[in-house]
Amino acid sequence: MITALRHFLVDSWLGRVIAFVVFASFIVLGGTFFGLGGGMAGLGGDTVAQVGSHKITPVEFQKAVQRQVAYLMQQNGGAVELLRTPEGRQEIGHAALRNLILVHEGAQAGKRNGLNPGDETIRGVIFAMPDFRDPSGRFSPQKMDSLLHVNNLSHQDLIQETRRMLYGRATMLAFGQTVQPPAQEVDWMVNHVGHGQVVDMVRLPFSLGEVSTQPTDEQLKRYYQNHLWQFRQPEYRHARIVVMTAGSVAKTLQISDADLQASYKMKMEDSVEAARYNSPELRSIEVLAVTDEATAGQLAAAWQGGQTWKALQKQYPRAIPATLDDARQTDLPDPALAKVAFATPEGHVSPPVHTAAGWSVVHVLSIKPAKHASFESLKDSIREDLANERAAAMLKDRQRAFEEAVAGSVTLDKVPADIGAFPLEGSLDAHGNLPGGEPAPLPGDVALRQAIISQVFSQKKDEPPHVVTEPDGSSFAVLVDDVTPGRQDSYETARQAVVDAWMADARKHATEQRATALYQQAKKEGLRQALAGQKEESLLRKDEHFSRLQQRHDVPALILRAALQQKVGETAMLQEGDGYWLVNVIGTYEESPTLMQAIRQRLTVQMTGAYRNDLQETLGMSYTRAAPPRHFNAALFNDVNERVLSMISGRLGQQ
């Protein structure tokens, strides 16, 4: 259901009408949650907030939260990381409430200015929606009813959302359409984004440190006394645990072949969903671009004759190189270049092709054929998705059976598996680790695992088990049947561990001293020269390119920031993980003219939107001053928001 809702809300024309307020909230309110005054005076327990005379009900707020999640899923390719943290869930709820406040503010402004779309106008807009037309292009009431039913929407919901869209168009979205960003600002942004840094860097792990002497017994005893917590055995508790989550309930459900076929058909008919499973032909290519046809011809002949790409770059230093890995034909910025790149056989070099930027020659490195996902290849994943969707709705019904089973089983050995509860047992410490040090294989997400650990270490030994239910609907019961108290290891018992810890600290200190000496030298003459002839020279990584366009994942984020933010000639010494890094910026580089032009176009569009949003935000805030939202019911807001997001988390399998 959530998959269908997501694509309905973001991929169809009707869905865009309903999702209008989600996008508008970011335009007008700028991501800030302004205060709602007045407490809860005059409101019952069925009103979240009030705008003018309109009271936002829990049902209305629930639908807004669902729309907000659908929008976030579309923006992030199906994942909603905000669902995983309490702060993120609050952010989703606040954005959803902003949406509602915004749309009702727009309606109030429209009414104040005499705007009131009549029934005929709304009917005309709905009848014109492509989603509601049959194959002949005529409006189909049956298709409309079916689509609304699938997405839990009524005719009144559709009318209200269409009316809101019309109010929004009239009162906000047309404002600032002709604004353009200053050319100087665009130039600065293009220069900032289109230039990268060339870096020399070296990582010196702590293990490289050389320790010439062994510690004395006195040194080891002093180290032991100063680090007692490192040599203590934690308390372990042996527990029997029974857990029931949406994921475990899903494993008990049977999905018919008819339902699987229907879901597969829906996925393949949805262009965005189908794109997740089907892929066009992909090609990895090398390109050299020059300004004139004669040079391109010489370059192509040399390349076809066996010259390598790197050798040709040295031979033709004015040629602009570019590579693309697993690119679609639409990924190539020039139509002529794309056409020849996808017509050239694998391992071959194309003849020169005339492009908008000059002349280019293409070498096709590899080809991945187009793929189409068959029903059989998706059958298992579809079954899992459908089972998870249905399990989320069934979880509450199964909870009563789970509670009855736990109440009738003092030792938790009589809880039936067919309700979706599964048992496990073992010893663990307060950090959730097994006696060997590895994490205990507890089920669920971080919140559920932490709740289980907390219950194990707060519940008394042999205390009768009881069901604990989490906000997302997951439940568990615990029986603690043995406790092994924690104890401090004696120096004699822990002596070898003390030696190992002392040596590790000594090696780290030696590495720090060595890194500091190299850093001081690198500040004077550069890292490359500082390492010349030194034993660490083999670890040096030269001429590494760092760009703001492509985030590298082979270095830590701290090192990435240093590489991009330092000035040319500067060297930084940083500790990250189990080593020290020396990072020396030795120069800069500029992206290719073709890419720079694409960057300029993209930034111009983004900055135009940002300026337009600023103007529209000013207008939107003026509406809130004319009719301030009031009477915010925080308790009801939190209750509805948590229930809706817990249900969605279950459907998404975030257990």
From TrEMBL:
The protein's name: Parvulin-like PPIase
Any one GO molecular-function label of the UniProt entry: isomerase activity
Main localization, broad class: membrane
UniProt KW keywords: Cell inner membrane, Cell membrane, Chaperone, Isomerase, Membrane, Transmembrane, Transmembrane helix
Statement: the UniProt record of this protein carries the keyword Transport: no
Location in or out of the cell: Cell inner membrane
Assigned protein family: Belongs to the PpiD chaperone family.
Limits of the PpiC domain: 255-380
Membrane topology note: Single-pass type II membrane protein
Keyword Oxidoreductase: no
